Amino acid sequence: MWELKQLCNDLHLPLGDKFTQDWAYELPDQYRTQTWLDKYLYAYVNSTYSKLQKHILMTLLLDVTNDLLSSGMSASSPKISQVLALLFHNHDDYMDLIDYWSLSDEPIEDCFALTPEIRKLKRRLNNK
After folding, report:
1. Cystine design at 69: which of 5, 36, 61, 113 (Cβ 3.0–4.6 Å)?
2. Distance in angstroms (rounded) separating the CA atoms of residues 46 and 58
3. Alpha-carbon distance 57 to 66, whole Å?
4. Are 114 and 101 contacting, i.e. CB atoms less than 8 angstroms apart?
5. CB-based burial label for 82 (10 Å; 0-12, 13-18, 19+)
């Protein structure tokens, strides 16, 4: 998967032992900080990456956002708001991620820290 390899080279991220769809979820903790979230946002917004590469970046953005929310960052922080706005405005490309993070059939206490925000986003999409 050359797209992932290019992203890793461009962003100076480890590729890992194998190319898997879970690459973003397996990225070491040192790449899951607010500083790195800023880098991923910048790369997403200011690049000519392919749809697949942007999907990989959005997966990473959401997973790091979930980590930051889990560690106490507010959902109203500017960077998290920016991630959610990108997701909302590009929702047609990311319905699989929206469905994954919303866990629609699960009680909220059994969900991700990001789930309440994704459910709000989903309600906004349904009311469009």
Report:
1. 113
2. 14
3. 14
4. yes
5. middle
